[in-house]
Design a protein that fits this description.
The chain folds into three domains: 85 residues, Arc Repressor Mutant, subunit A (Orthogonal Bundle), CATH 1.10.10; 99 residues, 3-Layer(aba) Sandwich (D-Maltodextrin-Binding Protein, domain 2); 101 residues, D-Maltodextrin-Binding Protein, domain 2 (3-Layer(aba) Sandwich), CATH 3.40.190. It is 38% helix and 24% strand. It contains nine helices and 14 strands. The strands form five sheets. A five-stranded mixed sheet has the order 4-3-5-14-6, with helices on one face. Strands 12-7-13 form a three-stranded antiparallel sheet. A two-stranded antiparallel ribbon has the order 1-2. It starts with a helix and ends in a 7-residue tail after the last helix.
Length: 298
């Protein structure tokens, strides 16, 4: 029976992630082991749980019937383990976390290292990337995301805020028409970041608010660090997290554009998959971030 429970947990992981390899990454098992458990479960029950193709797997009618009870079984098991660990002063377990790649020396990352130091029995697997991550498919317990959340299938909690500065290099500004008002920005070059929408930019000053739609996207990159490098090279203007460019601004390698105008404050969010009860360790990490909220400003 224990083998059946294990196979059902594998079945749930495949259904949630959409493939054998993704389920293997989530459960930290090889694809062959995942395939073995699924085949064994199907053989014992005498039914196929998935339709298989070269590109995808989808639930059969029998699989759809089995999924909710199997998911409840997995959730109950995780709840039981959380209850056991809840009685321990020292948490035990593992966390798979995704965070932005830029600002790896930022206070946000430092807060995670502080959590690891406080809880030596917790293993942390961290993936840093500025590209979108599929939390369910890749088996993440928690991700840190910035700005505006768009995926309604994820649960989230705002843990802090961050400020951005609109900047350019002195060399770029010396060669172009002066920027006196927000409207002047429309004649300038901008750096585009692939995963950050650039359709509209809002500038605020006291009770004023102006929306600008940059059209001259000369350079497009896929990471914030690359955007920063392009701005430093004098290729255009872009808004960057304040903590990422503090040193360059202090050294006058970057200059604030329209310093009397500000960009809206954005949120730093902890997000996690909405596929069952939240792990106690995940809740503990979120509480740790919130406890250090004033230190997390980017």
């Amino acid at each position: 029976m224990i083998e059946d429970y294990r196979s059902l947990a594998v079945f749930v992981a495949i259904a949630d992630t959409g493939s054998l390899s993704a389920a293997g990454r989530r459960l930290k098992l090889s694809t062959s082991v995942i395939s073995h458990h699924l085949s064994r479960l199907e053989q014992r029950q005498g039914v196929a749980l998935f339709f298989r193709s070269t590109r995808s797997m989808s639930l059969t009618p029998e699989g759809q019937i089995a999924l909710d009870p199997a998911r409840r079984m997995v959730a109950a098991g995780e709840e039981a383990l959380d209850a056991i660990h809840a009685g321990n002063e020292e948490p035990v377990g593992s966390l798979h976390v995704a965070m932005p790649a830029f600002g790896e020396q930022s206070k946000l990352h430092q807060a995670l290292w502080g959590f690891a130091q406080m809880h030596p029995m917790v293993a942390i697997s961290l993936q840093c990337s500025d590209m979108p991550t599929d939390l369910v498919r890749d088996g993440f317990d928690l991700a840190i995301r910035l700005g505006t959340l768009r995926n309604s299938s994820l649960k989230s909690r705002r843990i802090a805020d961050f400020e951005r500065l609109l900047v350019a290099s002195p060399g770029y500004l010396a060669q172009r028409e002066p920027i006196v008002t927000p409207i002047d920005l429309e004649a300038h070059d901008f750096i585009a970041v692939t995963q950050i929408p650039s359709v509209m930019m809002i500038l605020e000053r006291k009770e004023q608010s102006v929306s600008i739609a940059p059209t001259n996207m000369r350079i497009e990159v896929n990471t914030v660090n690359a955007a920063k490098a392009a701005v430093l090279a004098g290729l255009g203007i872009w808004h960057l997290p304040q903590s990422v460019i503090e040193q360059e601004v202090t050294q006058s390698r970057l200059v604030r554009v329209l310093p009397d105008w500000n960009l809206p404050t954005l949120g730093i969010y902890a997000v996690w998959p909405d596929i069952g009860p939240q792990k106690a360790l995940t809740r503990r990490l979120i509480d740790h971030f919130i406890a250090h909220r004033s230190d997390l400003m980017l």
